[in-house]
Amino acid sequence: MDTNTKDRNFETRAVHSGRVPEDGANSVTTPIYPSSTYRVEFPGDESGYVYSRWSNPTRAALERALASLESGKHAFAFASGLAAVTAVLHLLKAGDHVVAVDDLYGGTHRLFESLKLKYNLGFTYIDGTDPENFAKAVNDRTRLFWVETPSNPLLKLADIPVVSEIGRAHNILTAVDNTFATPYIQRPLELGADIVHHSASKYLAGHCDVIAGAVVVKDDQLAEKMHFNQYTVGGMLGPFESWLTLRGLKTLHLRMERHSLNSMKIVDFLETVPVVDRIYYPGIDGRPVPNNMTRPGGMVSFNIKADWDAVRQFATATRVFVLAESLGGVESLINHPASMTHASVPEEVRQAHGIGDGLIRLSVGVENSDDLLDDLRQAFDTMDRGMRKA
Ligand SMILES: *Cc1c(COP(=O)(O)O)cnc(C)c1O
What we know:
By secondary structure, this protein is an alpha/beta fold. The protein contains 13 helices and twelve strands. The protein folds into two domains: about 10-250, Type I PLP-dependent aspartate aminotransferase-like (Major domain) (Aspartate Aminotransferase, domain 2, 3-Layer(aba) Sandwich); about 250-390, Aspartate Aminotransferase, domain 1 (Alpha-Beta Complex), CATH 3.90.1150. The protein has helices at about 10-15, 55-70, 80-90, 105-120, 130-135, 160-170, 180-185, 220-235, 240-250, 250-270, 310-315, 345-350, 370-390, and strands at about 75-80, 95-100, 120-125, 140-150, 175, 195-200, 215, 275-280, 300-305, 320-325, 335, 360-365. It is globular.
């Protein structure tokens, strides 16, 4: 079978890339290699696999697939999205400065803040929707731009080509957290970014059954540093999770299509609900969508104009949407950022960034859209009845 998938289209590469053709049993799928160590031909032989923290055949298969789908050259799989962020931050030294978007995944924000105190790293948070804000925040210590687009939970969009250009002019690396869009919808390395980051726990693995992270780069020297950080810090992904993530990638394009279709129908519905006073969604308000995003993706956030008791009633009334942290799986999830995913962000920072008590974030799954709409409708009805009683 043709395993050199370089010239193939995205969907074909999603299904085929990374496959291990020479496993001795003619397997169609990539085997799981649990071995921690490998027989070598002579002392000091490093021509093949040596030790699985350094490299592992199953993880290498996943890394080849990730590099291919993100239009990169080298990928590195980690034990979590945050382990992957940590490995990127390991490129920095004490005194260095990072400019990051203000609407960040809560755990990334917590990690940045903990390093700020311990290792004297500087972090400036800016509204990433205006690229000029990156330029304004740069100082002579700035080494890294950290961009999340669409961001979490307000789905703000940053213009990757313009931000990367500003970075390049100042010798600053631009890293893009591409967790929400996935490479099916947006490919930052093609747009000028230096580093792509993923929480593969979300759409890449796609079934809420793996915690994993990834970094993809195109530059050989940067890849060498990232590999050093991977085997030196040691947060690499194990073979079983690598295999599950690789399996998830095979249906990424199918899932992202359905996530997007379902989320568009839900946004149409939310626009008719009187208590919903704000919807956050890529491309809404007739704004042009930057970065050649080909689909809106599966994330929808919205604000309910009601008190916390009513919002709580809504969030606990859904029967198909599961009230849970995380996102990106085949099952629809509902989340209340202020008390769940973003509870670690200080109250005043949250309020300043628009993450209030009325904010709800949906991870729209791949179920039947009528069932999802019915579920939201009955949850709003339940909330209305509760509000009338009160
Ligand atoms: C979940 C998430 C992370 C952290 O990834 P983990 O796999 O949970 O460690 C980082 N960024 C974004 C956008 C996320 O959604």
